[in-house]
Amino acid sequence: FEDLASFRKDLRIGRGIDFHRFQPGDGLTLGNVFIDCKLSIVAHSDGDIVLHAISDALLGAAGLRDIGYYFPDTDEENKNLSSLKIIEKALDLLKEKGLQPQNIDFVIVCEQPKIGPYVDQIKKSLAVILSIEESFIGVKATTTEKMGVIGDGNGIAVYAIASLKNLS
What we know:
Order of helices and strands: HEEEEHHHEHEHE
Number of helices: 6
Strand order of the largest sheet: 4-1-7-5-6
Radius of gyration: 16 Å
Largest sheet: 5 strands, mixed
Number of strands: 7
Helix content: 25-40%
Distance between the termini: 21 Å
């Protein structure tokens, strides 16, 4: 029972969700991987919705505030901000609490562009950013079967979950 109590004490799981609209453009970045397409993401920052959702999942697992608290879209200094800075801040805050990512899992929801060809690149990129093995990263993509705003091809969503482990 002592092992179970220790496990429960150390169990930290968080969820992050982000949604953005599309506009005509010359590509977008997901998980710090550029995807060449005729769309871009409408955002105050650079719009890497994968890094946003993962950052919120990590912050939530640590019991911290969301990325909007640390990087409000009302602050002009955050205009076109690299999402790498957002996830770096999240990782720094985790480190201060003696925590680090253990695993992440997320789903990208959009009708276009097709995400499948980029899954391995996204996993490799995130493994480096988060300092975890690729085998601890789950990347999935789905559509809404043409239902709703996302199904009409007008936007994208990412649903992420993360678990943390203690550094000690």
